[in-house]
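for the writeup, i need someone to sanity check this before i put it in the appendix. the sequnce is what the collaborator sent (i think, or maybe the updated version? ugh). structure was predicted straight from it, no edits. if anything looks off just tell me and ill rerun, i have time this weekend
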Amino acid sequence: MSTGVVVSDDVQYSFNEFKLKRGDYKLRYFIYQISKDRKYIEVEKTGGPEKTYDDFVEALPENDCRYGLIDLEFSTDDGRETSKLVFISWNPDTASVRPKMLYSGSKEALKAALQGVGIHINATDHSELDLETAILPVVKKFA
């Protein structure tokens, strides 16, 4: 399902700089939103390198949809420190139907723009954002 929402040029540029950790893009995460006119996906918030996964979760609105991209640092089962880029589609059960449909239908456009992100997670409530029980088990499959 396509909604006609496109990814803004700023999202593409900032993502490419983020992957290379250049300049002002030495960040921990991005939160993306669909613009008020429902035409573009744009950067809403960023989190600096000192931020944590918990800060990322707190930056997501309680009752509205968003997309997130985080550079998640963790230890593998054999003790190595590593990190992975993780895309999270936050589509809470408590959000209104219209934004849920808009965000669900526009997700593929953003995923296509974020080349190189291999881990995609859909979350509809906070239990699905729990680092230890929901996120790390998925991420560690790719480590």
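The mean pLDDT is 95. The chain has one domain: 6-141.
thx in advance!!
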